[in-house]
């Protein structure tokens, strides 16, 4: 078993360090294929007073700008979905499963929950406002409340949102949640409130430019977005 440090970068804005050890990544044959088998992490319709898709999964401009720091251990991309929501919004399990971790070492502080699902998939709910009252090992049903949404900066003013990831159970592979979750992604993507854009490499300007076409991420893999001709450029003109 190898040990790796899950530092502030991989923890998506963490200020504290935690340690996690990882099993080998599971092969495709062990992982359920996407079949819209999950639901959204909120009840009720989206809207400016409830919840909206804020930042997509993948090669976002925001992730590009932080590719060597916050997302350096995630190949430089945003390995989950951000849903804008007022602090305290009930967060729901996207599927039936078992609570695997409450405030575990897998990122997205200040509080998080991991649910294990059939097909060796795990969902992570990050930036929760308070510690979830769930117990590890507890069974949950799709739609059960697993916590309250919070703010990655812990102010409930700066960046209130839920960070949702879909991983393999080894926590080595990160999947685009869109084909796994039944939702009107076209409408949600059009109405998003921040970070909608994807980073271009002008040498391959169509690559990773739609919500559906984003790459899988492997923990610790090489950066995917060290683009030769990035657009927009990083602030200050650097790369
Ligand atoms: Zn996020």
UniProtKB/TrEMBL annotation:
Task: Identify the residues that the record assigns to the M23ase beta-sheet core domain, covering every copy.
Answer: 77-170
Q: Which GO terms describe its molecular function?
A: metalloendopeptidase activity
Keyword annotations for this protein, in alphabetical order, are: Signal
Top-rank lineage group of the source organism:
Bacteria
Pfam families, per this entry?
Peptidase_M23
Q: Which residues form the signal peptide?
A: 1-20
Name under which the protein is recorded: Putative Peptidase-M37
Q: What's the source species for this entry?
A: Deinococcus deserti (strain DSM 17065 / CIP 109153 / LMG 22923 / VCD115)
């Amino acid at each position: 078993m190898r040990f790796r440090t899950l530092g502030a970068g991989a923890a998506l804005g963490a200020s504290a360090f935690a340690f996690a050890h990882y099993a080998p990544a599971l092969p495709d044959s062990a992982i359920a294929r996407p079949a819209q088998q999950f639901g959204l992490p909120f009840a009720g319709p989206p809207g400016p007073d409830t919840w909206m898709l804020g930042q997509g999964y993948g090669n976002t401009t925001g992730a590009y700008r932080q590719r060597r720091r916050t997302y350096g251990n995630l190949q430089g991309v945003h390995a989950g979905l951000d849903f804008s929501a007022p602090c305290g919004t009930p967060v729901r399990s996207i599927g039936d499963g078992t609570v695997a971790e409450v405030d575990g070492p897998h990122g997205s502080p200040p509080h998080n929950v991991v649910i294990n699902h059939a097909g060796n998939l795990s969902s992570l709910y990050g930036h929760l406002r308070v510690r979830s009252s769930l117990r590890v090992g507890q069974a949950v049903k799709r739609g059960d409340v697993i916590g309250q949404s919070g703010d990655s900066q812990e102010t409930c003013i700066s960046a209130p949102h839920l960070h949702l990831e879909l991983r393999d159970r080894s926590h080595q592979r990160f999947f685009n949640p869109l084909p796994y979750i039944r939702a009107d992604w076209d409408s949600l993507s059009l109405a998003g409130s921040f970070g909608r854009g994807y980073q271009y490499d002008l040498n391959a300007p169509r690559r990773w430019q739609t919500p559906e076409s984003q790459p899988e991420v492997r923990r610790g893999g090489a950066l995917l977005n060290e683009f030769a001709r990035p657009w927009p450029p990083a602030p200050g003109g650097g790369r």
